Amino acid sequence: MEQAELHTSANPDGLEEFSGTLERVVFHNEENGWTVFRLRVEGREDPVAVVGSLASPQVGVRLRIRGRWISHPKFGRQIQMESWAEELPATEEGIRLFLASGCIKGIGPKWADRIVAHFGASTLDVMDNEPDRMLELPRFGKKRLEAMKASWAEHQGIRELMIFLQPYGVTAGLSVRIFRHYGAKALDVVRENPYRLAMDIHGIGFTTADALARKLGFEESSPLRAQAGVLYMLMRLTDDGHVYFPRTQLVEEAVDKLSIPADMADEAITDLELEERVIVEDLGDHVGVYLTRHHIYESKIAFYLHRLLRSPKAVHFAEPKKLVKSVLEKMPMHQNGKN
């Protein structure tokens, strides 16, 4: 049977392993990495259709994937990919196809032919360790060389990050977002403090970062977890309509939701203040904790309203305080008793 020719092993969970060369990219979504591609498998006459997440699919790359057969009502039989590992091409033809795909800026099909003709099977090794040797090629040029170096470094960076994160269940799309936010230091950031993902990248929640951190060996009592958790809760509270939240209540929320001591939660707020992620302000009868951007918004609004009211050309209201109070009373968050 054709299916038996494809897989190298089967697992109790129904996943099978497949190895082959990426022959054609049918569709690729840059935002989330969702990809439809054709995989050329040894011993099979026709390539097979594969769907799943890849960061930057490149024609000619060798892939070892794990997935299961599914039957799509419109596109027919295909492999639903769960995980993958990339193996850079080793043959001259594979390298030529890889470079000709346009994956490296500054190099197209014509330059791919010239480069491989000059360096042969050692081409990728040269790109890794002696990229300046590309200038041995007539008319390659320093501008093209710099573009190639930057693009190759990005390709390698995303690849290394995805290989590192894949065993922990992080999707290709998420890996791409992480790399684009942190650049070349992405892998170091994830290893040193995965909680920064929740604090720095919109759309990556505390739950995702916490799960990854636990898999990487971070303890529940980690101060880094406390900081990220407190910031996450403050974000959620502001989403509910709070411009700020009282410090004592925020500490209580952290103790309840994160299962950490009160002094650790309070210290986390201080650390976040030192990092300028939050603003802590004495409001008279209590101390408020603001997300920094919200404190800036509120301060600027107050400043411009004050200047407007004091301007001789401004529109003046007979009883401005009474007007403001009546407007606030009509707002849903005021009716719910929120700050």
What do you see in this structure?
The chain is of the alpha+beta class. It has a domain of 87 residues: Nucleic acid-binding proteins (OB fold (Dihydrolipoamide Acetyltransferase, E2P), Beta Barrel), CATH 2.40.50. Helix content is 49%, strand content 19%. The protein has 15 helices and 9 strands. The strands form 2 sheets. It has a 5-stranded mixed barrel with strand order 2-3-4-6-5. Helix 2 runs antiparallel to helix 3 and helix 10 crosses helix 12. The radius of gyration is 27 Å and the shape is elongated. The protein starts with a helix and ends with a helix. 29% of the residues are buried.
How are the secondary structure elements laid out?
Blueprint lengths: L1 H5 E4 L5 E13 L5 E7 L7 E6 L8 E11 L3 E12 L4 H9 L8 H11 L3 H7 L12 H24 L6 H11 L3 H7 L3 H5 L5 H10 L7 H17 L4 E3 H12 L3 H13 L3 E5 L4 E5 H19 L9 H11 L1 H4 L4
Parallel strand pairs: 4-6
Antiparallel strand pairs: 1-2, 2-3, 2-5, 3-4, 5-6, 7-9, 8-9
Which term fits the overall shape? elongated
Radius of gyration: 27 Å
CATH superfamily membership of the domain at 1-87:
Nucleic acid-binding proteins
If you average the pLDDT, what whole number results? 84
Strand order of the largest sheet: 2-3-4-6-5
How many β-strand stretches? 9
CATH class of the domain at 1-87: Mainly Beta
Concise summary:
This protein is of the alpha+beta class. Helix content is 49%, strand content 19%. The termini are far apart.
